[in-house]
């Protein structure tokens, strides 16, 4: 019995040591609406999460102060010390200088211009911090654990107020010259057209960003209507609501036909709030890809809906920490 006990104790010790050795990540996802933080284990499973309304913070410094407090709280709640944390990863809704850890600006959160967020957080937390654009992190998560798992090349889209994408080829994020690849929302669709938030015009986002869809729906249906309600109306067979989703699908399909011809990806993953839209959008977008992209790449591309929902950003942030330490 004694020998058995000591074996069990030994096994428990080895097990604990493995947990200690594998460590944890902190994943943070800052969006225009929500600030999300999570403690994530070495297998990218979320252990504990915290959620805040981004608009609840009057300014940048109170938001940063809250992030620092909440990271410490997550560690305290789980009796972890700095040694147990492999690093902190954070996604932001705008262009980020990945190499230097600087946030250039956030179109939907005022007051963030050229912020050296990596060094601010590292100083206050005493932990390694990596930052990246949220669409890139969502793509990394969907590629590693979600809808694009097993694919070689994937283009992952986030459709919401902003329209962005991340490109993953052979297991690596494609960042471009200055880490601003994937801005599919600003792919020009026409020579002339509506103004866009980026300062340009006739961009994809100016047609299929949430606000543009709402305004189109207002014009066609003659009243203010939320996107959820627009999908419900479409489900009940409302012709005008179906028309709006069909138009969104056509525009997105055109942009994706260009992506398919240029990159010949294995798959395209569609995430963000619009992924929950009425199926007419997806039917139309597949039709347009089939009609407008070249037959070989159009026949090879698979279109998936994102799988990891609103956790993708935090999980991708953890994956990024691991990648950065390789
Ligand atoms: Zn634009």
Can you describe this structure?
This protein has helices spanning 2-22, 60-77, 117-125, 134-145, 204-208, 210-221, 227-235, 239-263, 279-292, 295-300, 312-324; strands spanning 24-30, 34-41, 46-53, 85-92, 96-97, 102-105, 113-115, 129-133, 153-159, 163-169, 172-173, 267-271, 302-305. It is of the alpha/beta class. The chain has a 5-stranded mixed sheet with strand order 3-2-1-4-8, sandwiched between helices. Strands 11-10-9-12-13 form a 5-stranded mixed sheet. Strands 5-6-7 form a 3-stranded antiparallel sheet, with no helix packed on it. The chain starts with a helix and ends with a helix. Residues 186, 196, 198, 200, 203, 205 line the site of zinc ion.
In short:
The chain is an alpha/beta fold and 326 residues long. The protein has 11 helices and 13 strands. Helices cover 44% and strands 21% of the residues.
- Number of strand segments: 13
Bound molecules: zinc ion
Element-by-element helix/strand order: HEEEHEEEEHEHEEEHHHHEHHEH
Overall body shape: globular
Helix/strand class: alpha/beta
The percent range for helix content is 40-55%
Strand order in the sheet with the most strands: 3-2-1-4-8
Give the count of helical stretches: 11
Please, what is the average pLDDT?
Answer: 92
The amount of beta strand, in percent, is 15-25%
Outline the secondary-structure elements.
Elements: H1 2-22, E1 24-30, E2 34-41, E3 46-53, H2 60-77, E4 85-92, E5 96-97, E6 102-105, E7 113-115, H3 117-125, E8 129-133, H4 134-145, E9 153-159, E10 163-169, E11 172-173, H5 204-208, H6 210-221, H7 227-235, H8 239-263, E12 267-271, H9 279-292, H10 295-300, E13 302-305, H11 312-324
Parallel strand pairs: 1-4, 4-8, 9-12, 12-13
Antiparallel strand pairs: 1-2, 2-3, 5-6, 6-7, 9-10, 10-11
Helix pairs in contact: 4-11, 6-8, 7-8, 8-9
This protein binds zinc ion.
């Amino acid at each position: 019995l004694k020998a058995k006990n000591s074996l069990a104790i030994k096994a428990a010790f080895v097990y604990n040591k493995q947990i200690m050795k594998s460590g944890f990540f902190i994943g943070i996802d800052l969006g225009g609406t929500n600030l999300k933080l999570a403690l994530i284990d070495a297998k990218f499973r979320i252990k504990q999460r915290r959620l805040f309304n981004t608009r609840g913070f009057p300014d940048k410094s109170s938001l940063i102060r809250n992030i620092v407090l909440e990271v410490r709280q997550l560690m305290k709640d789980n009796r972890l010390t700095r040694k147990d944390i492999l690093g902190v990863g954070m996604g932001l809704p705008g262009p980020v200088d990945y190499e230097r850890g600087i946030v250039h600006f956030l179109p939907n959160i005022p007051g963030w211009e050229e912020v050296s967020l990596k060094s601010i957080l590292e100083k206050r937390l005493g932990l390694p911090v990596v930052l990246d654009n949220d669409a890139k992190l969502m793509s990394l998560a969907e590629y590693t654990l979600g809808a694009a798992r097993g694919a070689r090349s994937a283009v992952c889209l986030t459709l919401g107020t902003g329209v962005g994408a991340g490109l993953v080829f052979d297991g690596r994020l494609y960042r471009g010259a200055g880490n601003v690849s994937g801005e599919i929302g600003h792919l020009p669709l026409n020579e002339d057209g509506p103004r866009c938030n980026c300062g340009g015009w006739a961009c994809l986002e100016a047609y299929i960003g949430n606000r543009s869809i709402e305004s189109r729906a207002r014009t066609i249906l003659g009243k203010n209507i939320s996107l959820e309600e627009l999908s419900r109306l479409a489900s009940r067979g409302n012709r005008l609501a179906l028309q709006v989703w069909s138009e969104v699908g056509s525009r997105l399909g055109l942009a994706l036909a260009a992506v398919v011809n240029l990159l010949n990806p294995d798959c395209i993953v569609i995430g963000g709030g619009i992924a929950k839209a009425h199926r007419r959008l997806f039917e139309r977008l597949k039709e347009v890809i089939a009609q407008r992209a070249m037959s070989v790449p159009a026949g090879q591309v698979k279109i998936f809906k994102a799988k990891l929902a609103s956790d993708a950003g935090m999980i991708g942030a953890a994956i990024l920490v691991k990648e950065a330490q390789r």
